[in-house]
Design brief:
This protein is mainly β. 0% of the residues lie in helices and 43% in strands.
Length: 299
C-alpha cells in the first residue's frame, strides 16, 4: 500500500480516504458510506502527511509514518470510527514514508507489518511487525530487495510485494514472505516494472494497477497475479491512467481512489471500481477532496 495501502478484501461498511497531497500534505479524512454512497468528513489526521501506510484491523484504522511536507515521520495513530477520534500509539522505530503496510491474520491474532520505504536518504529492506497485544514493534526478516514506492498485499498469511524503486531503477521484481516460516522467496516478475502504483488482493489474486514506468508516467495498465499458478495476466485498464493511487478491496471488488493526472496537471477525486467477474471498471461518487499519495481502507 498502498501506496499504496491494502486491506484483506473483506466486506466493509465504509471506505476511508486519509491524508495525501495536493502539493502540500493533507490531514483530511473522508468516508464513503457504501450503502448510501455518500461521502462525509471525519476527524482529521493528527499529523498531516502523504505517502503513509493505512490499514484496518479489528474495527479500527491505523495511520503509519509518511511525509509531512518537510520531513519523514514515525507517528502511528489509531482511529476509532464510532468515536470519530484518533489516538497516538507506539511510533515506528524508524521514521519513513513510501512504505507498504498490511495486516496478517496470524494464528494468535492479527499483526501489522510495515515494509520498506525511505527516510529521504536511504531506501529500506526493513520489515517491522507491530504486536497489537503488547503495542511494541520488532524487526523481522528483511525483504530481499530494498524498495520504496511499491505495494504490499496479503494472500493466505503470505505478504506479497511488487515493484517500486530501489536506488534509481524501476523494479519488476516480486517477492513473498511466509510469516510462519519467516522466510522471503522470489515470485514471477511483474510484466512491466513500475513505481507509485497500487494493488489489492481478491480471491487468491493480486491486482496491480497504474503507476509510473520510464516514459509512461501515467499508466493505465492493470495486471493480475494468480498466486496458485505464479502467473500474471492482463486485465481491463484503468479508465484514467495515473500514479499515486490509493486502493483497497471491498466485497471482492477493487477500489482505486485519487491519484495525479499528469496531462491535466491535476490531483484527482475519481473513484473507480473493478469487478473481476466482468473484467470491467465502473465509477463511484468522487471524493470531496482531490488528492494523491493517500491511504485507503475499508472498515
Amino acid at each position: 500500500m498502498l501506496l499504496w495501502t491494502v486491506s484483506s478484501g473483506k466486506v466493509g461498511k465504509a471506505l476511508y480516504a486519509a491524508g495525501g497531497s495536493i502539493g502540500n500534505a493533507l490531514a483530511t479524512v473522508e468516508a464513503l458510506d457504501l450503502v448510501n454512497l455518500a461521502w462525509e468528513s471525519r476527524a482529521p489526521l493528527p499529523v498531516p502527511r502523504s505517502v503513509l501506510g493505512l490499514v484496518s484491523m479489528q474495527g479500527c484504522i491505523y495511520a503509519i509514518g509518511g511525509y509531512n511536507g518537510t520531513s519523514y515521520v514515525n507517528n502511528v495513530e489509531r482511529y476509532a470510527p464510532l468515536a470519530d477520534s484518533w489516538q497516538a500509539t507506539t511510533p515506528l522505530p524508524c521514521p519513513r514514508g513510501y512504505v507498504a503496510a498490511v495486516v496478517v491474520d496470524e494464528k494468535n491474532g492479527p499483526a501489522i507489518y510495515v515494509l520498506g520505504g525511505n527516510d529521504g536518504s536511504k531506501v529500506f529492506a526493513l520489515v517491522e511487525r507491530f504486536d497489537t497485544k503488547t503495542f511494541t514493534w520488532a524487526a523481522v526478516t528483511p525483504m530481499m530487495t530494498a524498495r520504496r514506492c511499491f505495494t504490499g498485499s496479503v494472500v493466505d498469511r503470505t505478504i506479497i510485494v511488487t515493484g517500486g524503486v530501489g536506488g534509481s531503477d524501476y523494479l519488476a521484481s516480486v517477492e513473498c514472505y511466509d510469516v510462519e516460516k519467516k522466510v522471503w522467496r522470489p515470485l514471477r516478475d511483474l510484466p512491466a516494472g513500475r513505481q507509485n502504483h497500487a494493488a489489492a488482493a481478491v480471491n487468491g489474486s493480486v491486482y496491480v494497477m497504474g503507476g509510473q514506468m520510464g516514459s509512461d508516467g501515467f499508466m493505465r495498465r492493470v495486471d493480475r497475479y494468480i498466486v496458485a499458478k505464479d502467473t500474471w495476466e492482463p486485465c481491463a485498464p484503468l479508465p484514467v491512467g495515473r500514479p499515486y493511487i490509493g486502493a483497497t478491496a471491498v466485497d471482492a471488488k477493487v477500489f482505486a481512489l485519487g491519484g495525479y493526472h499528469g496531462t491535466d496537471r491535476c490531483y484527482m477525486t475519481d473513484v473507480h471500481v473493478y469487478t473481476p467477474e466482468t473484467n470491467s471498471w465502473s465509477s463511484f461518487p468522487p471524493m470531496p477532496t482531490p488528492r494523491s499519495a493517500l491511504g485507503v481502507v475499508a472498515v
